[in-house]
Amino acid sequence: MSVTYPFLGLGFTLSYAFQAAGRPLWPLLATVSRVVIVAGVGWVAVHYMESGLDGLALIGAGGLIVFSSTLAVAFRAGAWRPESSE
User: Are 65 and 11 in contact (CB under 8 A)?
Assistant: First the structure.
């Protein structure tokens, strides 16, 4: 069992909640940050550091943690609430 499964569940749950609230920007930003981390840092780790599959798996786990943490911080900050029309 992977220790990042709770982060996967949290990230997907918050992503769907943001989309249901009509706020798709935060899931998009979180997904882009995950892709940039996994693709960019993963490429550097494999080509320059020669870390192999184990290093790439750790970077993938780190990208998943960043994905869910970004959404959790945005949710806690209230980014899912509708903007006030005052």
Answer: no
